[in-house]
Amino acid sequence: MIDVALVVNGAERSVSVASETTLLELLRDHLQLTGAKRGCDAGDCGACTVLVDGKPVNACLMLAVQARGRSVVSVEGLATQTALHPLQQAFHERGALQCGFCGPGMILSAKALLDENPQPSTAEIREALAGHLCRCTGYAKMIEAVRHAAEASKP
Amino acid sequence: MKPFECITARDAGHAIELLVRYGADARLLAGGTDLLVDIRNGSREPRVLVDLSRAPDLKRLELADDLLVIGAMVTHTEIMGSRLVRELCPALAVAAHSIGAIQTRNLGTIGGNLANAVPSMDLGPALLALDAQLTIAGPMGLRREPLTTVFTAPRTTTLSATELILDVTIPAEGFHKPMAFLKFGLRKGQALALVNVAAGFWPHGSEPVFRATRIALGAVAPTVIRSAEAERFLDQRVIDPESMTAAGEIAAGEATPISDFRASADYRRELIAVLTSRALESAWRRARAEPARKSA
Amino acid sequence: MNTRERHGASVFGNVLEADADMRLPALVPPPAFPIETLVPDVLKQTPAVGQRVPRSDTRLHALGQTRYIEDLTFPHMLHARIKRAGIAAARIKRIDTREAERMPGVVAVLTGGEIPVNSFGPSLQDQPVLAHERVFHRGDGVAAVAAISEQIAADALKRIQVEYEPLPAVFDPLDALAPDAPLVHPPHGNVYASRTLRKGDVERGFAAAYRIFEARYRTQMVEHVSIEPHAAIAEWDANGRLTIWSTLGRITLGRADLSRTLNLPLNRIRVIGSVVGGNFGGKNEITQEPVLALLSKKTGRPVKGVFTRTEEFTATTVRHPFIMDYKTGVSREGRILAREVRLTLDGGAYCSWTETTLGKACILSAGPYKIDNVHVEARAVYTNKTVSGAMRGFGAPQVCFAYESQMDDMARALRMDPLEIRLLNAFDEGSASPTGQVLQSVVVKETLRAAAERFGWNERST
User: Fold this and answer.
1) Do the Cβ atoms of A101 and C227 come within 8 Å?
2) Sign of the dihedral through C-alpha A19, A23, A25, A30
3) ipTM of the complex
4) Residue B142 falls within a domain, yes or no?
5) What are the two backbone dihedrals, phi and then psi, of residue B206, each rounded to the nearest 5 degrees?
6) Which of A147, B61, B203, C119 has the CB geometry, 3.0–4.6 Å to C125, for a possible disulfide?
């Protein structure tokens, strides 16, 4: 067992886990943050995506021990008590979610994009979401939702 | 995953000590994008992982003594975004960009890509075309090896069990060299290469002619390869579309692609010929677009 | 008031009431339902029409708060994994689970012999819960383990020894039709379901045709790849009542299957269908539910099973590959006079939803075109491959590929615009389907024309 201390959604957390525990398992099984999903366990589907120090990564391919001292943001860290994050709002309102399983990962990748590039082009949005598989929506409404959230956040 | 111990190395030296201590039971953990998948599917069963993510001496990305030094733990995202790489050898940035998707590029490293040594590796052809060398660290110290001799068979390198890649160096002869990298996969993103090609040369003289041509191919032989025959063919030859097409055909003949469920060998050969020719054309366009630089 | 008088001459001229001798139902279409007269002020009656309404579940999805099966945990819950055969056809000579049972962390092991009624299926009950004496495809489950962690369960599978006697296997449905082909489910033949559809007289139609086109079209196996894998949790209470949480879509059918396979009265079974991460037809029947139920019964603890992505490909259903032979006779102008279709469905190792697929494919195989003479022969054939089942369209996408490909082929040969040949043949309001169903609200031609305009069909370069 090893101790892993890290920041999750702004809060300092400390867990004791087996060495082979992935960041995904740490979040889901040890911190009960089940928003990140296990779709393939191989880094192909993107459903496990979380942000580590602001960068999207496949949580199924990162060991918990490698996340020591890092700042992790999962989908649970986006909304406040009173409001959805603009991306969550846009995905919800614009028909960009159907079964919802790929949603948390998509939304986090979109957030990482907008954090760095507040007015992305359609090509840039596509690139940001390219590491995610969705079998329900056909992606078009997701791209629209990201564009809409970007528009809505214009100062 | 099956249980293993994971020890975070303080630096390269510490990592080597751990490799020596644990021997065949240990494996280096870089980005994990290949290793963890292998552990899950049972093709690798290490008892100890040596985590390199906190070793500062593996993260160099700088010019030193006329060499571009890229530490083994530099990620594909960092390579893509590096001003140095984009200025001096942009084809490498393009190659890094072609790998997987954002999430895997944020984790995957140049050292991991090289050490894993799959024939379809995307950084391989670009680095071969840039005459890259590896700085390899082991219990006896450092050694340098040109990339051309590192790969001996699929997933096999000349690194011993107690060695690691410290960094990749690109000599100044490759800086600003007109070069292109092309990859053909069954999808535009998250795709394995069916064929990948890096081709570059220095235009020389008033005609001008090909000089110092490098053509490197991936996914079409047991390892990434240079197309020596095609390179010799082009040397001193006038730069024109016909010579590029001919070089493509020769490169296709030098490769030994396999037929598998993704594509037939014939189709891959066709791809090699077309992509090689296109890569040469693309390099030539770049050469003409940029003001005259140091040429061979 | 007489219907005919009100609507004047019908599309069919002066055809009168259905004649008892006629093989098809009434050709006179029923009168169009006069919505306007009944609901004069549509917008006032239905203010919802035209409103944009977000789905009721997407707010939770966006928050990451939706609880899919894998997100659920119960106290003392165990994790189950199923050992897959890895061989396409074999007799199971021996299964030894003792080493697995002894492993620390393993709480129970299950094999096919312990299943009370080891067969299920929506039409033919030819699929075992766990393979007992025979294996019919590589993805067949042969044993299952419940352990305190998924990793231990997976490790335990490796310690289960199975001795197989390989049997000849067949992988291509056409090979399976050969007289000397190995029988997948002896003593039954390899054709396990068939359908015939006949309308008019195709021989007469072909005789009158200006030209006849024949071609074979094939479609491939497709896997649903719902991003959420198959998952379920089983738990019993002290009154002997089973509760199953599952990604299963058809929960009433699932309940009936559980009742049958566990030999349990329906009123002791509760199935809770979870919010699902994609189904597309792939979660239309039980997979591991009876296994989890029996492991839960053995251990007295809740048991959860989540398929790996590999299992999604090997041990769940796929879309039927089709081999389609089309013979179509057309007039000089390109009007289809007769169409003869032979469909061979690669029916995989078990029947699953094949009968529904067969029926739909048959009816739809002629395409949305007015054809007086149609003959379809369709059959499903066993092969020792992944089970072909339900997937979005149930046979429609496959035949669509065939008949639309042939339309293009015919247009090219007759030097006709591919759009024109379709407009010439497409259904109209009141057209009859190949089974004689009179069709209403038909807008095929209007849609084609609107699409052609929207896509700039007439401005295209080639």
Assistant:
1) yes
2) positive
3) 0.97
4) yes
5) -85, -25
6) C119
